[in-house]
Amino acid sequence: MSRRPEPGGGLPRVVGRGTDDPHGPVRDEISFHIEKQVSDLIAAGWTEDAARAEAARRFGDAAAIETTLVQRAKWRRLRMGWVATLDETRANLALGFRQVRRRSGFAAAVVLLLGAGIGLGSSAFAVLDAAMLRPLPFPEPERLVYVRDVQDDDPRGYPASLAELGDWTEDADFFSAIAGVGGTSMVLGGDVPTEIEVGWTWGDWVAVVGHPPVAGRAPTADELASGGPVVLLDEQAWRERWGADPGAVGGTVALDDAPYTVIGVLPSEARLLASRPGVVLWMPRSMPEASPTTRGLHFLRVGARLADGVSLDDARGRGEELAGRLRDERLTRHGILLSPTREAILGDTRPAVTVLAGAALLVLLVIGVNLTILFASRTDERLREFAVRGALGAAAGRIARQIGAEALVLGAIAGVLGIAVALTLTGFLARSRPGPLEAVARADVRTFLFAGALTLILGLLLAWGPARTATGPAPGRLLLSGGPGRLGGRGLRRLLVGFEVALSVVLLASAGLLLRSVDRLLTIDPGFEPHGAVAAWITLPDSRYPVGPERVRFWDDLLGRVSALPGVTSTGAIDLVPLGGSDTSGGFEIVGRDFAEGEGPSAKKRFAGPGALEALGVPLLRGRFFTEADAMGAPEVAVVSRSLAERSWPGEDAIGKRIRFLWRTQAEQEIVGIVEDVRSDALDVAETGTIYVSYRQVPAEAGAMSLIVRASGEPSMLAEPIRHTLSGIAPGVPLGRVSLLEELVNESLSERTRIMGLLSTFATIALTLAALGLYAVTARSVASRKREIGIRKAIGAGRGAILGMVLAEEAPAVAAGLLLGIAASVPAARPLGGLLYDTGAGDLPTLAAVSITLGVAALAALLVPAWRAARVPPATAVRD
Amino acid sequence: MAKRTDVLKGTLDLLILHALAPGPQHGYGIVQWIRGTTGDVLQVEDGALYPALHRLEDRGWIFADWGVSDNNRRAKYYRLSAEGRRRLAAETETWERFSGAVRSVIRASQGSS
Known about the structure:
The complex is a heterodimer of chains A (880) and B (113).
Chain A: H1 23-43, H2 48-59, H3 62-102, H4 104-133, E1 144-151, E2 154-158, E3 160-161, H5 162-171, E4 175-188, E5 194-203, H6 205-209, E6 215-216, H7 221-226, E7 230-234, H8 235-242, E8 252-255, E9 258-266, E10 279-284, H9 292-296, E11 298-306, H10 312-330, E12 335-340, H11 341-346, H12 350-391, H13 396-430, H14 436-440, H15 445-470, H16 475-481, H17 490-522, E13 533-539, H18 549-563, E14 568-574, E15 585-590, E16 602-608, H19 612-616, E17 620-623, E18 637-641, H20 642-648, E19 658-661, E20 669-675, E21 690-694, E22 704-711, H21 719-729, E23 735-740, H22 741-748, H23 750-784, H24 786-794, H25 799-828, H26 844-870, H27 876-879
Parallel strand pairs in A: 5-10, 7-9, 16-21, 18-20
Antiparallel strand pairs in A: 1-2, 1-11, 1-12, 3-11, 4-5, 4-11, 6-9, 7-10, 8-9, 13-22, 13-23, 14-22, 15-16, 15-19, 17-20, 18-21, 19-20
Helix pairs in contact in A: 1-2, 1-3, 3-13, 4-12, 4-13, 4-15, 12-15, 12-16, 12-17, 12-23, 13-15, 17-23, 17-25, 17-26, 18-21, 23-26, 25-26
Chain B: H1 9-20, E1 25-26, H2 27-38, H3 49-59, E2 62-68, E3 74-80, H4 82-112
Antiparallel strand pairs in B: 1-3, 2-3
């Protein structure tokens, strides 16, 4: 018999699988035919020989036909095997779908949990992948390196100077291209002049980036040498501002009132390499003659491409040699530091990314535990079904495959949900660290593959336990006993709940530590008064306000009018606002003291005018602030910070001492005032020394400044009046960003607050899931023990006693989880390292708060089932 | 001797189904039936029958069982499945429509000449 199995009907018959050889039956069939023919012919009067010959002739090529039939039989056997498997799979999947539909509550819970877990895990992977694994989006990214200047005092290195870039361009033959970029803002002419971010480039920037222009061309060697006047647009800016108009290429743009020809459009990947975000256009600049200024001003981000066949290590070695030679030739202390680009661009995102990925993993684990509990309970409910089917003769493997199919159906739905979650969540996670990470992190094919793998692994893990139980020894015994399932009995489930609690505690503790750090940071005195003042950025175009008294007049004029605005109490201009994200420093000499060449002290340098420090609210400790009298022609003066005064003149009075900047040795400044230290880099970085000089005496620098305005009432309302005032005295000069000083303080903490927000969210999710898990396990345990509880009630146990019993039974798991979590939170806090301030792992108030939170959540989860247990009527003992 | 015509492939399937319509039969019996009913006009090389039989079996139009023949030898007997019966009816109807159409064409051309 070789009947085709009817789909879904009974056990599939496996046709001829195994030992029997198709040759036999085929040969039998053919030989029967021929023999029968022969005997019929003989009966009709043929001789045997003649009959045999005739039969063979009539039959045709018996050997060939045999081969054909055997081949066909083999194929059929192969196909039948597949058909049987496919049929069963189809039936299993259909059953899976039916199960999913029938238990839609269970299915929804699994899909939501699993989908959330897959989404979370995948987006954490996407961010981690972008920050640490995936090559940056440049051609031959491994050949793209960052070049920094390095001195003995700081192994992390400094930005390079133009003169250094010149030296390296000339002598470093191990690079095939090298270029530096510095950011600046310029005014883009048009109907509404706007301040835009411009990347000034020195060297063959397009070659370093490696991407050819998407439209137009790269600058020619002549243009690179002469500095244009040409520009390349950024691709994204070209789309946003120019509507991707191909006609923009070849056209002219006005920058600071000067015309530049647009020669091409550079892909936006180049933005990743810039020192400041949001570059709108790239402007090649000519390399100036080396001078003390070009040597002393360190502001360039230098990128280079390794020449063919040069490894990073080779280049480092040859860079050492070159630096040695340059040191001898030019008597400098500078070296060359080469680092891989990813390291340079994304290196500092590592702590944040590690924390996020770790937190996501913890949540994923909690989700996994909950799913396990959920599936285990579900299997309990179905054990009877499995036992019946087993007893009726269903093979163990078949039941296991059915469980697998159900998990597969759920997993597939959850996988789709997970990918949707990952698409949304990846951008959200990446924004916890704005800048390059945000630009490179996105959910892509790699993320989807990861999501698929995660789905498969989770699905198999989930199906494994129940499948094992269902196919375990003697399901019939369960059928007889009719008792509750023992899939990883109550003990194991409590263990799982304890584990969940521990994971939640770790997350809660981490979030708590960050919360406390931010809290502590906000109590720090930044050295200025953030409340009640705004900063407004204004950049003067060089063309209309050439370096010189013009600029001073502009600021004097503007400040005069702004101070007359209603509510304004003080106002002034300063080049860099505290916590505004920029910094410059310079070396100086103390007049009358000798320092070895280049060994003098250095300090942050700020240009400020009268009123600026007052408007910022920096307390004056001794001496005086700048006044109107500190003008061009009057003796140059400086105000210094307390720490600089203490460092440079320990035990002496700094007032009246004289200093001289290395970049401007022709003039000396007399110190006239000492002010409080200002935390201008970050709230948790103490100031090391600042020198304020007056831009009214050194007007070269007064091009891009911030107006600080302190006012009574609501300072944020000042933006419009300031804009109005500005356009009144200088039409066409745009008002840049206007920001409350408080906003700057908050932004300086934004990385912490963002991570804290994410950790808190993760912790809340984990805690909720742990509570749900605890509830589910307890409720199940209570439900399965109704009889026992009934008996206890019948023999006199009161409601309180039962309530207490349930709580007491579950409490050890929770307590153990709490302790384990607290212990684990200590090593878990390590990646938070730099984000923590004035607190650390094992912070008692944090742990106390975490314990209380957890206790409340656990109690809430336990009370419902415990109360239900307490209300079990004693009659249950006999009725059920 | 009547002129012999090669059997078209699809026609062979139809003939096999017809041969099995009265009841189970082995390959040799099917060949004899075809010879007898078609009066040797449609002659099949005996061996060519078997690939066709096995193909129909794979398609589920016929089933096969091993049995014992009248001369007491092991023989493979074929019988129609439910599907085979449906095919037989359908194919017969198609064939009759087709041959009727051909016949009417031939008559028309004979009439006009």
